[in-house]
């Protein structure tokens, strides 16, 4: 039963995350032999590792990994006895191999007009977004899928909590806050992308102030300001959002470090 091979190829073409579940060891009586595989996506499972509670638990583990974006191999041992609701009496070990395309982790600071326009585009992309603002009233009543709302008076803590290689987009209502966030992001030195909304005049002002705070010219040079694809013109929130989203797509398309 090699249907999982075709399903895996199709998932890879679509960039769909999946988990390959393999029986890697068997002792005593087991419902399937070593090497049996099952491919699990968020919506379906292809092939079987024997059914029953063993398969039920394996599906639950695989889908939890998909939901959490867990890319770490996992090995679980299952005794096929009364506790698992199966009467085979043997034991089997199951390898969970996540095949999850990398998804950029994005921290978007600012829930103003541009932030609201941008987050609706980011929600349609293969990324995870933490949307940060201290003003609860600025957020919409319902969050787009894949977007985590952060009503936060201490946004610098969000910067510190993001994993290495994260993308940072700063477009708050407060220039002083923008500067504090820029300093914190650049001190990390490991952003996959850092974009700051503003003009060339704002950039020059920030370059000077960041230099006074000990941020090197090399670090400041990684800051995208003005941000967004330069060929996308216009000052409407939707136009700026499209330009920024295009730059994000270009960045993760070439592996970050944009």
Automatic annotation (TrEMBL):
Domain XdhC- CoxI: 12-75
Organism this protein belongs to: Serratia plymuthica
Protein name (Swiss-Prot/TrEMBL): Xanthine dehydrogenase accessory protein XdhC
NCBIfam families xrefs: xanthine_xdhC
Domain spans labelled XdhC Rossmann: 107-248
InterPro entries: MoCofactor_Util/Proc, NAD(P)-bd_dom_sf, Xanthine_DH_XdhC, XdhC_CoxI, XdhC_Rossmann_dom
């Amino acid at each position: 039963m090699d249907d999982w091979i075709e399903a895996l190829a199709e998932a890879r073409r679509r960039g769909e995350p999946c988990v390959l579940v393999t029986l890697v060891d068997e002792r005593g009586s087991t419902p399937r032999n070593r090497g049996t595989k099952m491919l699990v996506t968020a919506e379906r499972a292809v092939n079987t590792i024997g059914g029953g509670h063993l398969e039920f638990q394996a599906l639950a583990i695989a889908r939890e990994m998909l939901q959490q974006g867990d890319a770490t191999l996992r090995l679980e041992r299952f005794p096929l006895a009364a506790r698992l609701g199966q009467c085979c009496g043997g034991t089997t070990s199951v390898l969970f191999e996540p095949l999850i395309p990398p998804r950029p982790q994005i921290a978007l600071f600012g829930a103003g007009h541009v932030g609201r326009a941008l987050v609706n585009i980011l929600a349609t992309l293969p990324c995870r977004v933490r949307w940060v603002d201290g003003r609860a009233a600025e957020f919409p009543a319902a969050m787009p899928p894949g977007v985590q709302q952060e009503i936060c008076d201490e946004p610098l803590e969000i910067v510190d909590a993001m994993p290495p290689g994260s993308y940072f987009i700063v477009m708050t209502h407060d220039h002083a806050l923008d500067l504090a966030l820029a300093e914190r992001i650049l001190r990390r030195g490991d952003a996959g992308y850092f974009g700051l909304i503003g003009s060339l005049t704002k950039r020059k002002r920030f370059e000077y102030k960041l230099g006074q705070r000990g941020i090197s010219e090399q670090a400041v040079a990684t800051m995208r300001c003005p941000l967004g694809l330069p060929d996308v013109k216009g000052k409407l929130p939707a136009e700026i959002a499209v330009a920024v989203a295009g730059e994000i797509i270009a960045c993760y398309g070439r592996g970050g470090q944009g």
